[in-house]
Amino acid sequence: MNAEDSIPVGIVVERREIDNPWQDYIFAPVAIIPGAPPMETMDEWKELQHGDGWIHYHAGTLDLKLLSAETDGYRTNLSNPQPYVYIVMTPGEEADEPEIVPFIVTASPHEAEGYTEDSEQIVEGVPMPPEMVAWVREFIVKNHVEEPFKKRKRKAYDPKKDGFRGAKGPLQ
């Protein structure tokens, strides 16, 4: 049986001005808000704070789901000095959407790595808050099942089964 648990997580995105002739600013996820309320619409980002050349927005709320099949990845994440929550953002495709849209949030570095193959997506880790570290650790304790490594045994090659007939065979 596959167990799962989830928590809503607000995605905080920074828009920072840059000195570039082709681009005015860049976006990057910088933090999360555990237990954040859902946004009425993902089209309207809520400004949280701003400074000289940067603005932080609550860009959306997504569910961070923990799955029992991913506990090995969560263990890898928590074994690091600083565990991360990984945020995947994708370009907004509709005219009324923001330039980037929060797409997925995960605690598994293995899952996050799978999204790095698409050059259009932004995949960044943000520090995992201590209360979330405790929540993930508890999930691992309850649901992790150690799977022993199974080494494949090589099968002996039998040329007679594959139709190989030597130097005088059909390939002459």
Q: Approximately what portion of the residues adopt beta-strand conformation? A: 35-45%
Name the poorly predicted regions.
none
Order of helices and strands: EEEEHEEHEH
Radius of gyration over C-alpha positions, nearest whole angstrom? 23 Å
Q: Compute the separation of the termini in Å.
A: 57 Å
Strand order of the largest sheet: 2-1-4-3
Give the count of helical stretches: 3
Task: Provide the domain count.
Answer: 1
Describe the largest sheet.
4 strands, antiparallel
Which bin fits the share of residues in helices? 10-25%
Helix and strand content put the structural class at: alpha+beta
- Average pLDDT for all residues: 85
Which descriptor suits the 3D outline? Answer: extended
- The number of distinct β-strands equals 7
Give a quick summary of the entry.
The chain has helices at 71-78, 109-114, 130-143, and strands at residues 4-17, 25-34, 46-51, 54-67, 84-91, 100-106, 122-127. By secondary structure, the chain is α+β, with helices and mostly antiparallel strands.
Description of the structure:
The longest helix has 14 residues, at 130-143. This protein has one domain (4-143). It is extended and about 75 Å long. Helix 1 crosses helix 3. A hairpin with an 8-residue loop joins strand 5 (84-91) and strand 6 (100-106). It has 3 helices and 7 strands. By secondary structure, the chain is α+β, with helices and mostly antiparallel strands. The protein has helices at residues 71-78, 109-114, 130-143; strands at 4-17, 25-34, 46-51, 54-67, 84-91, 100-106, 122-127. 16% of the residues lie in helices and 38% in strands. The model has no long low-confidence stretch (mean pLDDT 85). The strands form 2 sheets. A 4-stranded antiparallel beta sheet has the order 2-1-4-3, with helices on one face. A 3-stranded antiparallel beta sheet has the order 6-5-7.
